[in-house]
Amino acid sequence: MSAKQWFNLHSWAGLVVGVLLFVICVSSTLATLSHEIEYLTESKYRALSSSPMTNYPAIESSLNKHYPNAQVLYIHSHKQDYLATEVALKINDTFRFVYLDAASGEVLGEGEWARISRFLRNWHMNLSMGWTGKLIVTSLSILVLILLVSSFFFTDAGGKAFLKSQPHFYCINAMVGQTGISL
Predict the structure, then answer these.
(1) What are the pLDDT digits (tens) for 116-133?
(2) pTM, whole model, 2 decimals?
(3) Are 124 and 26 in contact (CB under 8 A)?
(4) Which stretches within 44-129 are classed as H helix?
């Protein structure tokens, strides 16, 4: 292959790697901020008081009053005191999520499993797990290998100019890419 063909291969592989990394970074950022996004969208996700302590007797009393036949599957108190405590309930073979104020136990609302935070967290999780995730990660590693190998064929003899006394930006960029060092 000629140097131009190696450069074209390198460019296209870099474009695909960049897009995949962008999707992974965006999904991880949105997954990290998913509870805050919910907080901004609906009031049931917002705690009424900002108490660092969870009042479990008040939550139990409130659940017994509003959902007497429900089975509590789990209670999730967030580290952030501005987020409502989430309780997963099983009511007659259906699942329901109830949101309560951690300090007072007041019911703020209820919802289903499908919500913004679950979608965003599952989207990012599926990029790293399962068959699809393995395909993405494997293709990313193959593309990085193509980038490494192709960079030796279109740079000036594998970066020999970098070893000269005054390297140009292009040579520094090529060597940084070949060594995997990020600036």
Answers:
(1) 888 888 888 777 666 777
(2) 0.63
(3) no
(4) 56-66, 116-128
